[in-house]
Amino acid sequence: MTDDVRNIVLGVVAAGISATLGWLARTYLWKRKLRRKQAFFGLPDSSESLLVVNRDPAASEPAVHRFDVFALLELAALVKDCGAHIQVVTQDMVGQGFGERTEFCVGGPGSNRRMVAHMAAMLPGVRVNVDPEPGPDRGAFQIGGERYRLDAGVTEYVLLARLTAGDRREARPAFLFCGQRAINNQAATRYLARHHEKLARKHGNNSFVLLLKVVNSQAYGPDVVELVGDVTRAATSPLPAQAPASRSSHRA
Predict the structure, then answer these.
(1) Hey, CA dihedral for 192, 214, 53, 136, is it positive or negative?
(2) In the chain, which ranges are E strands?
(3) What are the residues facing 90 on neighbouring strands?
(4) What is the pTM of this model?
(5) What are the φ and ψ backbone dihedral angles of 184, each rounded to 5 degrees?
(6) Residue 63 CA to its chain's centroid (Å)
(7) pLDDT of 83-95, one tens digit each?
(8) What 3-state DSSP class applies to 180?
(9) Which residues are paired to 251 by β-bridges?
(10) Mean per-residue pLDDT of the chain
């Protein structure tokens, strides 16, 4: 074998080894990233999850608002990426406990009975005004001693929560998307899809409640979202005695 042929063979072998090592490294990093995502969402391979659909309160017949449909599609993509399965159930047909399967619950207490139950059990510091009559506090959130009013199409709020049942390590989380309007629910699901890695690094597999502000949805849709703050402590603590009560509000 001449030196030139030997050099060519060695070069091909070195290139093959480098390509194999690169592929193994990329595969390892991809799998580690996937495992972290699965742990955050509580969705190991081939696991089952529950997507609880609300109803459109403005429709005379049972229906889902189109922005909530878009939110469901975004959540379905997240579940598929984790290699898990999803079951879609309407808000009045769930009939099962909490923590057995990862749950994604979409819609505020005015359109989702399951959200009412979750808020009553785990978010005692949150009150949502569900009064159908026009007024300055219609749709307002009260979190602890703070109130967040709805200015439709201009400034709107949505709660994004990851909650777990007690200290059971095997318990699966429930993700809540509680917006003042349907477009806010979609904004929260999109925020979760974009920022789940950052949220996992910050919160790990612990519970959290975030308040998000959707800015100028009439022009920008669900795309411009600002983090108002982490309201976990206020949302999971009883409302202060001096907190003002909103007329026809839902108290969690």
Answers:
(1) positive
(2) 48-53, 85-90, 102-106, 126-129, 141-143, 146-148, 155-163, 174-179, 208-215, 225-230, 249-251
(3) 53
(4) 0.83
(5) -70, -35
(6) 22
(7) 999 998 887 777 7
(8) coil
(9) 127
(10) 84
